[in-house]
Records
---
Amino acid sequence: MANQAYLLQQLNKAVLLMVTKLDQEQQASLDELAEAAALSKYHFHRIYRLLLGETCQQTQLRLKLAKAGQALTLAQNSVTEAALQAGFASSQSLAKALQRELGSNATDLRSDPDRLSSVMQELARP
Protein backbone atom coordinates (compact mmCIF):
# COMPACT_ATOMS: atom_id res chain seq x y z
CA MET A 1 0.00 0.00 0.00
CA ALA A 2 2.88 2.38 0.74
CA ASN A 3 4.28 1.69 -2.72
CA GLN A 4 0.96 2.68 -4.31
CA ALA A 5 0.86 5.89 -2.27
CA TYR A 6 4.39 6.70 -3.43
CA LEU A 7 3.48 6.05 -7.07
CA LEU A 8 0.37 8.22 -6.81
CA GLN A 9 2.50 11.00 -5.36
CA GLN A 10 4.91 10.67 -8.29
CA LEU A 11 2.05 10.63 -10.82
CA ASN A 12 0.64 13.76 -9.22
CA LYS A 13 3.89 15.52 -10.13
CA ALA A 14 3.30 14.57 -13.76
CA VAL A 15 -0.29 15.84 -13.67
CA LEU A 16 0.91 19.13 -12.19
CA LEU A 17 3.38 19.39 -15.07
CA MET A 18 0.51 18.83 -17.52
CA VAL A 19 -1.44 21.68 -15.92
CA THR A 20 1.60 23.97 -15.94
CA LYS A 21 2.34 23.22 -19.59
CA LEU A 22 -1.31 23.77 -20.49
CA ASP A 23 -1.20 27.19 -18.80
CA GLN A 24 1.86 27.94 -20.98
CA GLU A 25 -0.11 26.79 -24.06
CA GLN A 26 2.11 23.74 -24.49
CA GLN A 27 1.62 20.01 -24.17
CA ALA A 28 3.90 17.89 -22.02
CA SER A 29 5.65 15.03 -23.78
CA LEU A 30 5.77 11.50 -22.42
CA ASP A 31 9.49 11.98 -21.75
CA GLU A 32 8.84 15.10 -19.67
CA LEU A 33 6.02 13.44 -17.74
CA ALA A 34 8.05 10.33 -16.98
CA GLU A 35 10.97 12.49 -15.86
CA ALA A 36 8.69 14.56 -13.59
CA ALA A 37 7.46 11.33 -12.01
CA ALA A 38 11.03 9.95 -11.77
CA LEU A 39 10.02 6.78 -13.64
CA SER A 40 11.08 5.20 -16.90
CA LYS A 41 8.79 6.00 -19.86
CA TYR A 42 7.58 2.43 -20.11
CA HIS A 43 6.93 2.05 -16.39
CA PHE A 44 5.37 5.52 -16.14
CA HIS A 45 2.86 4.94 -18.94
CA ARG A 46 1.86 1.53 -17.61
CA ILE A 47 1.51 2.69 -13.99
CA TYR A 48 -0.27 5.90 -14.99
CA ARG A 49 -3.03 4.06 -16.79
CA LEU A 50 -3.26 1.35 -14.15
CA LEU A 51 -3.59 3.73 -11.19
CA LEU A 52 -5.42 6.67 -12.76
CA GLY A 53 -7.68 4.80 -15.17
CA GLU A 54 -6.81 6.86 -18.23
CA THR A 55 -3.82 7.53 -20.44
CA CYS A 56 -1.73 10.70 -20.26
CA GLN A 57 -3.23 11.80 -23.56
CA GLN A 58 -6.75 11.36 -22.20
CA THR A 59 -5.84 13.39 -19.11
CA GLN A 60 -4.37 16.18 -21.21
CA LEU A 61 -7.47 16.27 -23.43
CA ARG A 62 -9.72 16.33 -20.36
CA LEU A 63 -7.75 19.24 -18.90
CA LYS A 64 -7.91 21.13 -22.21
CA LEU A 65 -11.68 20.62 -22.35
CA ALA A 66 -11.98 21.89 -18.77
CA LYS A 67 -10.00 24.99 -19.71
CA ALA A 68 -12.23 25.54 -22.74
CA GLY A 69 -15.31 25.12 -20.54
CA GLN A 70 -13.96 27.70 -18.14
CA ALA A 71 -13.44 30.12 -21.02
CA LEU A 72 -16.98 29.43 -22.25
CA THR A 73 -18.40 30.61 -18.93
CA LEU A 74 -17.15 34.11 -19.72
CA ALA A 75 -19.80 35.81 -21.84
CA GLN A 76 -17.31 37.96 -23.76
CA ASN A 77 -15.47 34.91 -25.14
CA SER A 78 -16.57 33.42 -28.42
CA VAL A 79 -16.34 29.68 -28.95
CA THR A 80 -13.29 30.26 -31.14
CA GLU A 81 -11.60 32.31 -28.41
CA ALA A 82 -12.39 29.62 -25.84
CA ALA A 83 -10.92 26.96 -28.14
CA LEU A 84 -7.72 28.91 -28.74
CA GLN A 85 -7.30 29.77 -25.04
CA ALA A 86 -7.54 26.07 -24.20
CA GLY A 87 -4.92 25.09 -26.75
CA PHE A 88 -7.13 23.76 -29.54
CA ALA A 89 -6.09 24.65 -33.08
CA SER A 90 -9.57 25.86 -34.00
CA SER A 91 -13.17 25.94 -32.89
CA GLN A 92 -13.75 22.88 -35.08
CA SER A 93 -11.12 20.95 -33.11
CA LEU A 94 -12.89 21.88 -29.88
CA ALA A 95 -16.27 20.96 -31.38
CA LYS A 96 -15.04 17.50 -32.41
CA ALA A 97 -13.49 16.86 -28.98
CA LEU A 98 -16.66 18.00 -27.16
CA GLN A 99 -18.86 15.84 -29.36
CA ARG A 100 -16.62 12.80 -28.96
CA GLU A 101 -16.10 13.15 -25.20
CA LEU A 102 -19.38 14.69 -24.04
CA GLY A 103 -21.84 14.16 -26.87
CA SER A 104 -22.55 17.89 -26.93
CA ASN A 105 -21.34 21.12 -28.46
CA ALA A 106 -20.08 24.39 -27.01
CA THR A 107 -23.22 26.37 -27.81
CA ASP A 108 -25.47 23.86 -26.04
CA LEU A 109 -23.18 23.81 -23.02
CA ARG A 110 -23.04 27.58 -22.87
CA SER A 111 -26.83 27.86 -23.05
CA ASP A 112 -27.19 25.50 -20.04
CA PRO A 113 -24.99 26.97 -17.27
CA ASP A 114 -25.87 24.21 -14.79
CA ARG A 115 -24.77 21.49 -17.20
CA LEU A 116 -21.65 23.45 -18.13
CA SER A 117 -20.78 23.77 -14.44
CA SER A 118 -21.24 20.06 -13.75
CA VAL A 119 -19.29 19.09 -16.88
CA MET A 120 -16.44 21.40 -15.84
CA GLN A 121 -16.31 19.87 -12.38
CA GLU A 122 -16.09 16.38 -13.89
CA LEU A 123 -13.43 17.37 -16.43
CA ALA A 124 -11.28 19.25 -13.94
CA ARG A 125 -11.14 16.41 -11.42
CA PRO A 126 -7.62 15.45 -10.41
---
Amino acid sequence: MITVNGERRELPPMSVSALLTELRVTPRGVAVAINGEIVTRSTWETATVNDGATVEILTAAAGG
Protein backbone atom coordinates (compact mmCIF):
# COMPACT_ATOMS: atom_id res chain seq x y z
CA MET A 1 0.00 0.00 0.00
CA ILE A 2 1.36 3.42 -0.97
CA THR A 3 -0.15 6.87 -0.67
CA VAL A 4 -0.14 9.02 -3.81
CA ASN A 5 -1.18 12.66 -3.41
CA GLY A 6 -3.16 11.72 -0.30
CA GLU A 7 -4.90 8.70 -1.84
CA ARG A 8 -4.03 5.20 -0.63
CA ARG A 9 -3.38 2.70 -3.42
CA GLU A 10 -2.71 -1.01 -3.43
CA LEU A 11 0.36 -1.20 -5.68
CA PRO A 12 3.49 -3.36 -5.59
CA PRO A 13 6.94 -1.77 -5.20
CA MET A 14 8.00 -0.20 -8.52
CA SER A 15 10.19 2.51 -9.95
CA VAL A 16 9.03 6.11 -10.08
CA SER A 17 8.95 5.85 -13.86
CA ALA A 18 6.74 2.74 -13.70
CA LEU A 19 4.46 4.43 -11.17
CA LEU A 20 3.93 7.41 -13.46
CA THR A 21 3.12 5.03 -16.30
CA GLU A 22 0.74 3.05 -14.09
CA LEU A 23 -1.05 6.25 -13.09
CA ARG A 24 -1.06 7.54 -16.69
CA VAL A 25 0.85 10.68 -15.69
CA THR A 26 2.70 12.42 -18.52
CA PRO A 27 6.19 13.14 -17.13
CA ARG A 28 6.61 16.54 -18.79
CA GLY A 29 6.56 19.30 -16.18
CA VAL A 30 6.26 16.83 -13.30
CA ALA A 31 8.17 16.70 -10.00
CA VAL A 32 8.07 13.68 -7.69
CA ALA A 33 8.81 13.39 -3.98
CA ILE A 34 8.93 10.17 -1.96
CA ASN A 35 8.51 10.55 1.79
CA GLY A 36 9.27 14.27 1.49
CA GLU A 37 12.46 13.84 -0.57
CA ILE A 38 12.56 15.14 -4.14
CA VAL A 39 13.49 12.42 -6.64
CA THR A 40 15.55 13.79 -9.51
CA ARG A 41 14.31 12.89 -12.97
CA SER A 42 17.63 11.20 -13.79
CA THR A 43 16.92 8.58 -11.09
CA TRP A 44 13.25 7.84 -11.88
CA GLU A 45 14.17 4.53 -13.53
CA THR A 46 16.07 3.29 -10.46
CA ALA A 47 14.34 5.02 -7.53
CA THR A 48 11.90 2.56 -5.97
CA VAL A 49 8.55 3.37 -4.43
CA ASN A 50 8.25 0.81 -1.64
CA ASP A 51 5.31 -0.38 0.43
CA GLY A 52 4.28 2.29 2.94
CA ALA A 53 5.75 5.17 0.93
CA THR A 54 4.07 8.54 0.60
CA VAL A 55 4.44 9.95 -2.91
CA GLU A 56 3.62 13.45 -4.05
CA ILE A 57 3.35 14.06 -7.80
CA LEU A 58 3.30 17.74 -8.67
CA THR A 59 2.62 19.26 -12.07
CA ALA A 60 3.88 22.68 -13.06
CA ALA A 61 1.17 25.08 -14.11
CA ALA A 62 1.64 28.17 -16.23
CA GLY A 63 -0.44 31.20 -15.70
CA GLY A 64 -0.45 34.76 -14.70
